[in-house]
Amino acid sequence: MLVTLEGIDGSGKTTVWEALRESDALDRPTTFTREPTDSWYGEAVSRSLADPEADPLAELFLYTADHAAHLARTIRPALDRGEVVISDRYADSRYAYQAASLDGVIDRPLEYVIGVHDPWTREPDLTVYFDVDPETGAERSAGANKFERVGFLADVQANYERLLTADPGRFVRVDATRPAPEVFEAVERRLDDLLG
Q1: What is the pLDDT of residue 145?
Q2: Residue 91's pLDDT is what?
Q3: Which residues are CB-neighbours of 41 under 8 A, at least 6 positions away?
Q4: Which of 4, 73, 95, 150 has its CA 20 to 30 A from that of 34?
Q5: What CATH code is carried by the domain that includes residue 65?
Q6: Residue 46: what are its φ and ψ, rounded to 5°?
């Protein structure tokens, strides 16, 4: 079972991911992981985040390489062992963020980025979408990187909404404007429903 946590920067998904990892809520073997990874591929991604002049198409392929390695080294082996995998960010982040970065660079960027991944990625069984407005997200994340600006996050959020509309059976929307304990409880309930 592959569960992914998605949302714009500042949505609180990482806080919930960390709380799930620390809790004993899941009574089964679970691998907690995230993208970008801590591999050298992920390190290249992190370096590009710090570079405001990084080419958006080159960035897409850095993120894509990190995702491919993540699937091969962590996710597929854990799933083969029968574990639940919970990932803080996954392919939908790439679809939403890199498509926003590529807007005006290539035609139909969301479809392009999905098409790059489609032949080989593994679709999640459940994606929890942490819904928060771009203003709140930017304020919470304090502009730590070039993607954490209100206007850009609004474009990213619009891409997430397109993804949710296209695949409503996979996504569960959680109101991430609520206090963190309430958000955690909502996610925990969804996981109980899925895994119970």
Answers
A1: 65
A2: 98
A3: 62, 65, 66, 69
A4: 150
A5: 3.40.50.300
A6: -60, -40
| CB atoms closer than 10 angstroms to residue 165 | 9
How far apart are alpha carbons 145 and 2 in whole angstroms?
Answer: 28
Q: What pLDDT is attached to residue 52?
A: 87
- Give the model's pLDDT for residue 146: 63
Angle of CA points 32, 36, 41, to nearest 5°: 120
H-helix or E-strand containing 15?
helix 13-22
Beta bridge partners of 3: 86, 126
Give the Cα separation of 4 and 17 in Å (integer). Answer: 10
What does DSSP assign to residue 123? -
Identity of residue 95:
Y
If one counts every other C-beta atom within 10 angstroms of the C-beta of residue 56, the result is 18
Q: Averaged in consecutive runs of 10 residues, what is the pLDDT profile of the chain (196 residues)?
A: 96 94 87 97 93 94 98 98 97 97 96 97 97 90 72 95 97 95 93 84
Range of the domain at 43: 2-195
> What is d(CA 41, CA 63) in angstroms, rounded to the nearest whole number?
8
Provide the pLDDT for residue 26: 82
- Number of domains comprising the chain: 1
